[in-house]
Amino acid sequence: MPPLDLITLERALEWARRGETVWLCSVLSTYGSSPRPPGALLAATQGGEHSGSLSGGCVEDDFLARLAAGEFDATPRLVRYGADDDRERGIRLPCGGQLDVLVERLAPGTATEALISAMLDVLRGAPPRLREVSLIDGESRLVDDAGLGPRVERAPDHVRLRLAPAHRLIIAGISPVSRYCAQFARALDFDVIVCDPRADMCHDFDVADVRVIDQLPSSVIPGASHGGTAVVALTHDPRIDDLAMIEAVRTPAFYIGVMGSRQTSAARAERLRRSGGLGDEDIARLRMPIGLDIGSRTPAEIALAVMADIVATQRGSRPATAPHITGRQAEPIRPR
């Protein structure tokens, strides 16, 4: 299942091409608890068609009602949900949170179609871009960007919205950790691909909305990776994990990791240098041991550490390369 923002822009482009005015809403910031992160999108027409989500609840209903009443004809518009008057109207965010939203009115025409098409290209795998929107006149422009860091940057007269390819997780090999990783990743709106050459293991992998491919991961990774991709090898089988790492470092994936203890990781690094032909820069891209050091021991805990490390790297809170092998990761508890 494609990530929600990708679906939202695809629908918005359909509406623009048939001559509809499109209102594009972007979450700028959240205070307290909010179901959708900064940068999340909702698109709508004045007739009530809509795609995407701002909060997963009554905020969308309120916005659509106000849109139908003509309230957002002048844009750009900054809207805050969660204030006292919202609560009086029955609009409540979880745990008393607040939500700031940028509303843009995109008139039909070639300029709107070109903008949405360019945004879609990025989400589908083109290089990251930064979209700068003037809060004075609504003018929008796209500039090149590294793709890592906060999704939204605010200034008094403009906002910057970071666009990167829709995040994807490729899981190389099926193990107890793989199942939890896939579940966590889907909850985080990742497009998830699981690949393993063992057909019986693939047949029994039943996590919803996950593509399962019964091939060696090394044959899938080259064609399925872009700048928004994380690749993780989770089997402890060098025949699967090592080949996956050799192919992954040849891609623009922003995160590459392989499961194993510190001792196992050191041995793997030497093996990849000797047999795989990887250099120091290649090895530095590999998270070995994988994941944040949270003292994880069970498969679920290891998967949690892996996904937390991926998100931290994506948000710019962790460096994209690891200059040396550090830390400790326990071997997962294997089912009897």
Automatic annotation (TrEMBL):
Q: Do you know which InterPro entries this protein is assigned to?
A: MoCofactor_Util/Proc, XdhC_CoxI, XdhC_Rossmann_dom
| Domain XdhC- CoxI intervals | 15-82
Q: List the Pfam families.
A: XdhC_C, XdhC_CoxI
User: Can you tell which superkingdom this protein's organism belongs to?
Assistant: Bacteria
Identify the Gene3D superfamilies for this entry. NAD(P)-binding Rossmann-like Domain (3.40.50.720)
Q: Where is the XdhC Rossmann domain?
A: 169-310
> Region (Disordered) spans which residues?
315-336
Q: Which PANTHER family match?
A: ALDEHYDE OXIDOREDUCTASE MOLYBDENUM COFACTOR ASSEMBLY PROTEIN, MOLYBDENUM COFACTOR INSERTION CHAPERONE PAOD
Q: What is this protein called?
A: Xanthine dehydrogenase accessory factor
Lineage of the species this protein comes from = Bacteria, Pseudomonadati, Pseudomonadota, Gammaproteobacteria, Oceanospirillales
